[in-house]
Design a protein that fits this description.
By secondary structure, the chain is mostly helical. The protein contains 20 helices and seven strands.
Length: 480
């Protein structure tokens, strides 16, 4: 966590600079991007909002949410598991695909801890401010939510992690790894705080109601809490939280697959916009203007597309699934004198080359139906099938034939695979939380070809952080 030694002033300056182009988070004339004295930065709504807005812009500029294919979690974790395959042997994507990453590839650790430092700075600054902040609850609620979400991702990648709850570098740089149970307890506490502070409507960087779903509201905090309860096998609370979101039909609805990923769709809970107008990152990852027919002397990599859908995902789709029709595209490398034609299939959830026609969705309603379906099945409630069928009906499929809890859980897991593929690392986190990652990867690894060992379920911690803080012990199996 070496980045946590930065001073509050330097972090604030960095965040304020990144607010250039942040109008989508502010919905209007952007707030001033200038150096502000650390002691007075939380003395007005304008400057406080600038700091929080800077965190969102920073999210799209680096780390698990960025357009960098070497860092984006949907992309790298898709390669790491059974969702994607590398289409160019020996390049960076191959390291994730072949499960051969080392600490230099494990950038989420340092990146998320630097973001946590910024969020903790905001929480401390707002709580300590004596100013009359009109939108204090919004700024605090967003900060608590982000702290919870960053910790959730960190523990998903690395298991036991240091809990970073302060900006005091003398504390942060000597933290030991907290048990995952303790990390989850803190995440739940932060999300409950966020729930109590955030409003049901979406607000922009001025505290004004907006149609943009780019900052978390109460429903987003509730939805993430449902996910965390599911991860903790707290089925009753997972069901209750998901129900609260699902019942908000005035704001959220399952909609036809072709419309799901459009900007501010009614299925969107929370999305991220790039810092400047551009197509969604998912379009660049898997389309990028690549033609449907590729010349025989070229490959998808000729269009800077380095990953395609795996056969494991393709084979999971049932006939006539509207998600396959709408969310998968193909390109064919033409036959040559020495090789037959080759068909590649790519995620096509983000299909527009137009700037800001689509935003990167981080959370959406379909996940809540699948969370509630699983939570109900774990409690042996027959209503589980209804939630599963809601997602299947939207996909143009018949109702599930599964009836027993065991069969329903298998059907729900399969539905998560075809519904949430390449989104936010869901598959990786699902395989880990259900204890199935070793069994699945034992089948997948030989097709890559590579070998799988249980220790690979945890990513390596960067060597520099282990050297700097002797209280951080490395994950097993990695050369540090």
């Amino acid at each position: 966590m070496k980045k946590t030694i930065l001073s509050a002033g330097s972090i604030l300056l960095a965040l304020l600079i990144t607010t250039t182009g942040c109008d989508k988070y502010l919905d209007g004339t952007q707030l001033p991007a200038k150096t502000i004295d650390g002691a007075s930065v939380y003395e007005s709504d304008v400057t406080t909002s600038t700091v929080i807005t800077g965190v969102y812009i920073n999210m799209t500029g680096s780390g698990p949410f960025t357009g960098s294919t070497g860092e984006n979690m949907g992309y790298t974790l898709g390669l790491y598991t059974d969702e994607l395959k590398s289409v160019l042997s020996g390049n960076f994507a191959d390291r994730f695909y072949k499960n051969t990453i080392q600490s230099a590839d494990s950038k989420a650790w340092s990146n998320l801890y630097s973001k946590l430092f910024a969020v903790n700075s905001a929480i401390e600054g707002i709580n300590n401010s004596t100013a009359s902040l009109t939108y204090r609850n919004q700024w605090l609620g967003e900060s608590y939510f982000l702290r919870a979400y960053f910790h959730l991702l960190l523990t998903g990648y690395y298991g036991d992690i240091p809990l970073a709850l302060t900006t005091d570098y003398t504390v942060n740089n000597t933290l030991s790894r907290a048990p995952q149970k303790q990390v989850y307890e803190q995440i739940i506490a932060d999300l409950k705080q966020a729930q109590s502070l955030l409003t049901p409507d979406y607000r922009n960087g001025y505290g004004v109601t907006t149609t943009n779903r780019l900052r978390p509201n109460k429903a987003v905090a509730t939805a993430l809490l449902a996910r965390v309860y599911l991860y903790n096998n707290d089925w009753a609370n997972a069901e209750a939280q998901a129900t609260e979101v699902i019942n908000n039909t005035a704001t959220y609805q399952l909609i036809p697959p072709a419309q799901v990923f459009l900007a501010n769709s009614r299925e969107t809970l929370w999305a991220l916009a790039p810092s400047s107008p551009k197509p969604a990152f998912g379009f660049n990852f898997f389309n990028n203007g690549m033609p449907a027919v590729i010349a025989s002397n070229a490959t998808p990599a000729s269009s800077s597309v380095f990953a395609a859908l795996s056969n494991f995902v393709l084979n999971a789709f049932e006939p006539n699934d509207a998600r396959f029709t709408n969310w998968v595209r193909s390109s064919t490398v033409s036959a040559s004198a020495t090789a037959p034609a080759t068909v590649y299939y790519f995620p096509n959830k983000y299909k527009s080359s137009a700037n800001n026609a689509e935003y990167e969705i981080i959370m959406r309603l379909a996940e809540q139906y699948l969370i509630r379906a699983e939570a109900r099945a774990r409690q042996n409630k027959p209503e589980a099938a209804n939630d599963l069928n809601a997602v299947r009906t939207r996909a143009g499929l018949a109702n599930t034939t599964a009836s027993s809890p065991v069969d329903l859980l298998a059907a729900i897991a399969k539905e998560r695979q075809t519904e949430l593929f390449t989104e936010s690392g869901h598959r990786f986190f699902d395989l880990k939380r259900t204890g199935t990652i070793d069994a699945v990867m034992a089948i997948v690894a030989p097709t890559k070809p590579t070998t799988w060992s249980s220790y690979l379920a945890l990513w390596p911690i960067p060597s520099a952080d282990i050297i700097q803080n002797p209280n951080i012990k490395p994950n097993p199996g990695y050369i540090q």
